[in-house]
Amino acid sequence: MKRINFQCFKAEMEIGRFETIDVRKEFGNVLFANATTLEQDELARRIFHSKSDGIEIAEQEIEAIRKVFQAAGIRYSVVKAIEENARDFETVK
């Protein structure tokens, strides 16, 4: 499992210029508009409504976001930033 904080998301906006921005609304809406499964729809809503501690996200969900964003024409630096912002997260059992 990973955790991504979409409220404090770091991405390269221009060559060599990184910004930390709140992408919850934009990412949630892009994923929602392009969702082809119930799981993608639910993931879009989790991202949109996420808080400052981020959300737990599985590797297959990260891959689904990447595929949807690439198909939607989202630029590579933003797609790449999804994995760069993913942090390992151990759930307490």
Entry keywords:
single chain, 93 residues, alpha+beta, three-stranded antiparallel β-sheet, two-stranded antiparallel sheet, 4 helices, 5 strands, globular
How would you portray this structure in words?
Helix content is 48%, strand content 20%. It is an alpha+beta fold and 93 residues long. It has one domain. A three-stranded antiparallel sheet has the order 4-1-5. Strands 2-3 form a two-stranded antiparallel sheet. α3 runs antiparallel to α4. The mean pLDDT is 93.
Number of domains: 1
Shape category: globular
Overall pLDDT confidence: 93
- SSE ordering: EEEHHEHHE
Number of helices: 4
Secondary structural class: alpha+beta
| Spatial order of the strands forming the largest sheet | 4-1-5
Proportion in β-strands: 15-25%
Q: What characterizes the major β-sheet?
A: 3 strands, antiparallel
- The first-to-last residue Cα distance is 13 Å
Estimated radius of gyration: 13 Å
- Give the tally of β-strands: 5
- Specify the helix fraction band: 40-55%
Can you tell me the residue ranges where pLDDT is under 50 for at least 5 consecutive residues? none
